[in-house]
Design goal:
The protein is of the alpha+beta class. It has 2 domains: about 45 residues, no CATH class; about 160 residues, Jelly Rolls. It is built from 2 helices and 8 strands. The strands form 2 sheets. Strands 1, 4, 5, 6, 7 and 8 form a 6-stranded antiparallel sheet that branches. It has a two-stranded antiparallel ribbon with strand order 2-3. Helix 1 packs antiparallel against helix 2. It starts with a helix and ends with a helix.
């Protein structure tokens, strides 16, 4: 009898101990070789519709004053010429988008922490809902998201505004994800184990009542 009770408890607890996982698809900017396209992100703007941004080179302007690239992330820019000057007479808007899929996971358990830098300012949107806004390219701005996720494909938009300046006016984005978590949806066999455990507990309770 004692062994049966233990087995029942273990079956039920299997349902409640599904381990959280990292969110697949949250990729830092600039993961790849400098000078190549960052295919994890898409870019749209008035002048560059539905393209992919380019990963910057280290030690080329505007890296410094922009915070320096490293092995964790790099800046991405609209064109292969990272020093190209944009938006001479009016501010420009550049939307860098990243998609990730939560199929097979419980969207209401998802969350992540990240940090961002941009030339000049950036609004971060998760599924079209504002998560954070920041400005500056000499340091990081941290932000988190703990809600607003949906089942299936989610989208993060980093909407960069490049302030107007007639000359010497590049633009770019830098993103690093520092932590993420989401709970998988239990497999069917886990539900079966839970139901079997509940049935065992019920049978034991009924047996005790009849004694």
């Amino acid at each position: 009898m004692k062994r049966t009770i233990i087995l029942a408890v273990l079956a039920i607890s299997a349902f409640s101990t599904v381990q959280a996982a990292n969110i697949n698809g949250l990729v830092n900017t600039g993961v790849g070789a400098s000078g190549t396209a960052d295919t994890h992100y898409t870019l749209s703007s008035a002048s560059t519709a539905n393209t992919v941004p380019v990963i910057t080179y280290n030690n080329q302007w505007p890296i410094s004053p922009w915070i320096g690239n490293d092995g964790t992330s790099k800046w991405i820019t609209p064109t292969a010429d990272q020093a190209q000057s944009f938006d001479a007479w009016s501010a420009g808007t550049y939307t860098y988008s990243l998609s990730f899929d939560l199929s097979g996971y419980k969207a209401d358990t998802a969350g992540f922490s990240a940090r961002v830098a941009a030339d000049n300012s950036v609004a971060v949107l998760l599924n079209n809902q504002l998560v954070s806004s920041a400005a500056g390219f000499t340091g990081w701005s941290s932000f988190t998201a703990n809600g607003g996720f949906i089942d299936g494909v989610n989208k993060l938009d980093f909407v960069v505004t490049n302030w107007a300046q007639n000359g010497g006016n590049p633009t770019g984005l830098r993103v690093e994800f520092t932590d993420s978590t989401v709970t998988p949806v239990p497999e069917p066999e886990t539900y079966a184990m839970m139901l079997g455990g509940l049935a065992l507990v019920g049978a034991i309770a009924r047996r005790r009542k009849t004694k």
